Amino acid sequence: PAHAPGKLITRLASDAPNIKAVVDARMLQVIYALSAIVACIVIAFIYCWQVAILGTSLILLLAFVMIGLAYKISVMNIEQIKNDEAGRIAIEIIENVKTIQLLTRCDMFFDHYETASKQQKRSELKKGMIEAINYSITQSFMYFMMCFTYAVGIRVIYQGDKSSDDTFKGIIAMMLGAVAVMNSAQYFPEFVKAKTAAGMLFNIIYRKPRTGDLMEGDRPEIRGNILFENVKFSYPQ
Prior knowledge:
The protein has 237 residues and is mostly helical. It is 76% helix and 0% strand. The protein has one domain (5-205): ABC transporter type 1, transmembrane domain (ABC transporter transmembrane region fold).
């Protein structure tokens, strides 16, 4: 069951450390990056709106891609948590180690644990592929930004719509925004894990029992006084 001691211990041991990603310096780094992106977009629009529109479109496209990857990883995390049997088996083995030794069933439980661990490994490898795609896209984003903004900037200068000075200021502003994206995107996997872990922990905390809420219904007043009525004692001789 979902509320078995082994699963609860596993969730508390693994989910609580994952939430640290949103309460330490990593979150501060992401906030700095978002502020820098907004400032760079404003500066680019001031000097060269053509370059700014293109750069903003690329940033929004990257944001949509990251949101899609985050949703995919979040679904895989939830599925992995539901199918996590390795932690439960390990806790039960530790709690009942003497019984297992007396029954000479060590090999059987070892095989069960190995099978569950291999399932977790396959799930982690699938998530690793998605995280690798995200990392490769975000860390090369600056070069895509450089390519497209310089292409548009050269066209703008050639047609005489903006001076070369203003155009290059807009390009540099969007380049700095791309650098901010690269610096903050490296924390993407930790934030997805933190979101899933926080959701699972709050689900455990606020889960209502199927048998009903203990705080609802009649609560008769119970007193600790004891009263004996019509009680006779017999003492055999």
